[in-house]
Amino acid sequence: MTFENLNLKQSLLDSVKREGYQTPTAIQFQSIPHILNGRDLLGCAQTGTGKTAAFALPLLQLIMQDKSTAKFRGIQALILAPTRELAIQINESFKAYGKGTGLINTCIYGGVKQASQVSILKRGVDILIATPGLLLDLLQQRIIELDTIRYFVLDEADRMLDMGFIDDIKKDHPQAS
Ligand code: AMP
User: Fold this and answer.
1) 93 contacts 165 by C-beta, under 8 angstroms
2) 35 and 55 in contact (C-beta within 8 Å)?
3) Is the pTM of this model over 0.90?
4) 81: Cβ below 6 Å to ligand 1?
5) Could you report the per-residue pLDDT of 15-55, keeping only the tens digit for each?
């Protein structure tokens, strides 16, 4: 299996080459075709097995295709991560893989001055990586709107639930268990 076999666009093939990846990892070759086909996916893989590229590469491709039709505006993809460290790491990966795609990504997390994060958001981003606490805060302040989002990733969903975010989910959806 090669990245070429996965039907990725040239700019993404160039990115994986630049990163020095020779072949897709197991989670990558299993996930990428499903996501490119627009299907939902629940993936389990240990840390360090390449799961960020498994969702980032196909999402970049889908958003590039969507944008080429010029129909879609606003934040297209939301990635939730349990910690600031992971959010920063995912943002760096999107930046590296998305070089040459023209897409803009940013990450937001608590514990830093909000103004600079908000000004980046106001300039417009395609892909937003966020920790749940700050996202909820910015939603409540109506700084972020989620109605343009077409792709949603919960990274390390199990860890987020362990951290107690089920309470926030239940607040809006009491039927969730
Ligand atoms: P992740 O599990 O997404 O945190 O990735 C772990 C590490 O594997 C990161 O340093 C990636 O740059 C690297 N990586 C991701 N995909 C591949 C691949 N196909 N071949 C080699 N290294 C990879």
Assistant:
1) no
2) yes
3) yes
4) no
5) 999 999 999 999 999 999 999 999 999 999 988 999 999 99
